[in-house]
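Data card: per-record layout.
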Amino acid sequence: GRKCEGRTRNATKVVIAAVAVAVGTAVRRAWNKMRKKRREEEEMPLHVQVEELRKVNEEIAEGYHRLWRLWLDAVEAKHTAEMESKRWMRKLKDTQDEMFALRREMEHIRGRMEVP
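The structure for this 116-residue chain is written out next.
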C-alpha cells in the first residue's frame, strides 16, 4: 500500500514536471518567435503586433489546455492504481481466509483420525 502510494505520487510529480517544462518551452518558443519577428520588422504596424500577441496568447491557452488534460490523465491513473491495489489486497485477504479455513478443516480431520 505505502510503496504503491509513493510510486503513484512520484509518477504524478514526474507528469506535472514534464507538463510544466512543455508549457514553459511552448511559451518561450512563442515569445522568441515574436521577438525575432519584431527584430525583422522593427516598426511593425500596431494591428500586426496585436495579431502576433493574439497568436502567442492562443499558443499559451493551448498549452494550458494540454496541461489540464495531462493533469486529468494523471489523476485518473492514480485513481486506477489505487483501486487496483485495493482489489489485490482484497484478493490476498480472501486467499488467506481460504487457507485458514483449509487448515482448520485439516486439523479437524486429523483430530477425528487420532480418535481410537
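Known properties of this structure: The longest helix spans residues 46-114. Residues 74 and 80 are 10 Å apart (CA to CA).

See the next section for split statistics.
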